[in-house]
Amino acid sequence: MYQLEAVDKAILMILQKGIPFDSRPYFAIGQAVGLTEQEVIERIKRMKEEQIIRRMSGFFNSRNLGYTSVLCAVSVAEENIAQAAELINSYAGVTHNYVRDHQYNLWFTLIAAGETARENILDEIESSPYVDKMLRLYTNRRFKINVTFDLEV
Amino acid sequence: MLSPLQIEIVRALQNDLPLVPEPYKVLADGLGISEETFLNEMKVLQQAGCLKRISIALRHNNVGYTINSMIVWDVPEERVNEVGEKLAAHERVTHCYDRNKAPDFDYNLYSMVHAVSEADYQQLVMELQELVKPVKFAELKTLAELKKIGMKYFME
Hints:
A: alpha+beta, Alpha-Beta Plaits, 2 domains, 5 helices, B: Alpha-Beta Plaits, 26% strand
């Protein structure tokens, strides 16, 4: 595993908080951590190559873009997990899919352009022979979404 | 309602930001608009609550956070707001949602945590229990990640 240096962690903490809406954002980050613009670019490139950074792009509020989302759990027999996952993951709006330690063992999130589209996809998944049962867990209230990891700089 | 230009900007920003000195200029050039217009529209989208920020998703397993767990709680309806806010205020909780209960999944508050070791995780669960108690809860640890992507909007 790539060993992060202190300055890498400092860059990651800034990137997690948000890249400036500025003509020269990497220059601004360099100013904050004591590197040149080119050094910041090289370090980010390296951390992407080394599988530290998964993506670096816009984070959007799906609801305010007119989309709707849902968390779903399905129970799938152990021997059918690969086929069920292949079906579930085939939908572009499925953004997360995890195996969890529970009777409902596959947990996925779906983002869709409207309620009809969302329910149609869920119906298709639910009717798969590989899926035994499904829970549709709609959000009543979102208290928090803030995926920021403290890297102990 | 987003304008056609704003939709183009959302599409441009959901790809990885170019690693060049003027990344927004590259994106603006691609849309045939000025960098100034592009940056202004980004601010408008942010103020409208559409664009949260330009940021990174870390592969948390590769920066030490190898334990990931969804902890779900069965909280009485009259305590949901109080407990949800308490959980959300904990710095190690990355997501916290109130969801509808299901017939055979009798939990309504969902919290997501990430930990660097089993000891760290157990300590974290204890802290959250202190905040929430006394209610039934379940820990659903992540055993495998089968898909994790950023949503691509306006592609249909």
